[in-house]
Design goal:
Blueprint: H1 5-19, E1 23-28, E2 34-40, E3 44-50, E4 57-61, H2 74-82, E5 87-92, E6 99-106, E7 109-116, E8 123-128, E9 133-136, H3 172-180, H4 186-193, H5 199-210, H6 221-235, H7 237-240, E10 246-254, E11 257-267, E12 276-279, H8 283-286, H9 301-328, H10 332-347, E13 358-362, H11 363-367, E14 377-381, H12 388-432, H13 436-448, E15 468-471, E16 477-480, H14 484-492, E17 500-504, E18 512-515, H15 523-535, E19 545-551, E20 555-557, E21 566-568, E22 572-576
Antiparallel strand pairs: 1-2, 2-3, 3-4, 5-6, 6-7, 7-8, 8-9, 10-11, 10-12, 13-14, 15-16, 16-18, 17-18, 17-19, 19-22, 20-21
């Protein structure tokens, strides 16, 4: 389950009481996107910090954490340098945020490990004492998020503030007005209107205020006053520290007989809206438990998991290629320096004696330049077995070799980045696939891209997965591509140049078309289409998702790109809550 702001506040309180002043003895990597810390305070504590999309969390485990990833990541190597042997000196949580700053002081200086526990956007980011990023579990370049890059050397910028009400500064009347402007069930409206309120917390607030799920609850002055009172009481817990950790259960019953219960949630307050609950001593320890709601069995779970694992393996290979290319990239300064050294040898040939191993020059001697660095001495290594001319030509050969690399590497990096983007899209396709034809289409896309060898003759499917079509009034229709091939179809075969095109910003997901035939498109239709784009994306678990909207004529295929890979311009961005299609949509 996802950890909300209150859960992280309670975990921060618990861990601060136990860990502050402790020394970090081990730094391990249990999974690809998690870090484990062993902190000694007279006894050993095992802390798990995870940015995994399915289980982002901060947890205190009883068992000693073990290495799971095959190799150390750049982030783990930096943590070993700066954090192992350092002391934990502060644990801080920004107001109403799902972020915890771990501050360490050690022989290599002070650093912060920033844990952003935000669903699929979760990350672990190490910054230096000046706020510059050293590295992160997930590097985020501008092509994914132009507003907030997460790359080494860039200043850390916190997530942008959400346009919601502050729970402790809002009046009952303001709360009522905000809720009235939202649609859907009352708990969802609370999530969309108030900062720091998660779906679990919203259900608890509504239950405490109304005694039920609030569906038939009129938002009059009395009910709003009760809702406001409960909201503020729970949201003041980080100030009052009156935590009541509990674990909540779903009870399975046949007729009137209870057959068993399953732990489905934990929280730093009593979970009275669930079938049953009981107190627990620690939220941080509960976060290490394997909880799971009772769901009907998924007949495609294993096939989906196998496909996702296959894609993850290919993603790892491509990311390794990209890292190698980044190391091979040539900076303009490097070329300039090689050119200077070759010219310096030719210019100072008269000073070079046979067998000389080094030449010392200044820039002013070679180029005549002035300035603060013009008279700095530069040492150029020479091969004593070569003449000055041969030494210069050797440097010029290296210059030409590096110059050629400088032209080739960016193109190759762009190609690998495009492959990574396509694989990320296919991974989302697999995760969202709800039937066998949809899963088979993902596998076929991998085969066509050369990632998976074909086995035998190509199978023909009797019922191939089709785009979602929603017919509305006035001849308007919404088309949703639910995988990369459908994305290509709805964008370039089933839409006109003036139709609206929508896609979640900076993440894999559906291409959504609003086909209007020249009719004006109501704002509520655009909002519905944006919510579908958010739902059929890798960000569907987020409460608010940015979605870009433009006319289809501004969308172009990437030359030589895979199906569904596009660029677009002249977009506007909406921020919406993901919503699935209605039951009668098909």
């Amino acid at each position: 389950m996802s950890q909300d702001m209150l859960t992280l506040a309670a975990i921060r309180d618990e861990l601060a009481g136990e860990l502050l002043g402790g020394r970090v003895q081990r730094v391990i990597r249990p999974t690809e996107l998690s870090i484990g810390l062993e902190i000694y305070t007279g006894q050993r504590h095992q802390v798990l910090l995870s940015a995994e999309a399915q289980s982002p969390r901060i947890a205190l485990t009883e068992e000693r954490l073990r290495r799971g990833a095959d190799s150390a990541s750049p982030l783990q190597l930096l943590l070993r340098k700066y954090v192992r042997g350092a002391r934990l000196v502060a644990l801080e949580q920004p107001d109403l945020e799902r972020i915890v700053h771990w501050r360490f002081a050690g022989p290599e200086g002070a650093v912060e490990l920033i844990c952003e526990v935000m669903g699929r956007l979760s990350n672990l980011i190490l910054v230096d004492d000046d706020g510059a990023i050293l590295d992160a579990a997930k590097r985020i370049p501008a092509r994914i998020n132009r507003y907030r890059e997460i790359l080494p050397g860039i200043a850390y910028v916190p997530p942008p503030p959400q346009d919601k009400l502050h729970p402790l500064h809002v009046s009952p009347a303001e709360l009522g007005a905000a809720l009235a402007g939202q649609s859907g069930a009352l708990p969802r409206r609370l999530v969309n209107a108030v900062l720091g309120v998660s779906p679990l917390l919203a259900r608890e607030i509504v239950h405490r205020a109304s005694g039920d799920d609030g569906d038939a609850w009129p938002l009059d002055d009395d009910t709003l006053a009760r809702l406001h009172e409960v909201l503020q009481a729970l949201m003041r817990l980080p100030q009052t520290h009156a935590w009541e950790p509990s674990i909540g259960y779903q009870v399975q019953a046949v007729g009137t007989t209870a057959m068993g219960r399953t732990a489905v949630a934990y929280a730093p307050y009593r979970l009275t809206h669930l079938d049953a609950w009981e107190p627990i001593p620690s939220v941080a320890q509960a976060a290490a438990l394997a909880l799971g709601p009772m769901r009907p069995p998924d007949p495609y779970a294993q096939a989906r998991a196998d496909l996702v694992a296959l894609i993850d393996d290919q993603l790892e290979r491509q990311r390794g290629r990209l890292a190698s290319l980044e190391r091979a990239a040539v900076a303009p300064d490097e070329l300039e320096e090689l050119q200077f050294r070759g010219n310096a040898i030719l210019a100072m040939t008269w000073q070079i004696a046979p067998g000389q191993e080094a030449l010392q020059v200044t820039r002013s001697q070679v180029t005549g330049e002035t300035g603060p660095k013009a008279d700095e001495t530069i040492t150029i290594r020479l091969d004593p077995a070569l003449t000055p001319s041969e030494n210069a030509q050797a440097i010029f050969r290296e210059y030409r070799k590096r110059e050629a690399a400088a032209k080739q590497v960016p193109q190759r990096m762009a190609e690998v980045e495009a492959e990574i983007a396509y694989l990320e899209q296919l991974r989302t396709d697999a995760e969202l696939a709800d039937d066998r034809p949809a899963l088979d289409q993902v596998r076929e896309a991998l085969q066509e891209a050369g990632y998976v060898p074909r086995q035998g003759r190509r199978r023909e499917h009797a019922a191939a997965s089709e785009p979602l079509r929603i017919a509305l009034e006035d001849g308007i229709a919404i088309l949703v591509g639910r995988n990369s091939r459908q994305n290509d179809v709805v964008t370039f075969r089933l839409s006109g140049p003036r139709d609206l095109w929508l896609h979640v910003r900076g993440a894999p997901g559906a291409h959504v078309i609003v086909r209007h035939g020249g009719q004006p498109v109501p704002d509520e239709v655009i909002a519905q289409a944006a919510s579908l784009a958010a739902y059929y994306s890798s960000l569907r678990e987020e409460s608010q998702v940015p979605v870009d909207v433009t006319e289809r004529r501004h969308v172009r295929r990437i030359p030589g790109g895979r199906p569904g890979m596009v660029t677009y311009r002249q977009e506007e961005t909406l921020v919406v809550a993901p919503h699935p299609p209605a039951d009668n949509d098909s």
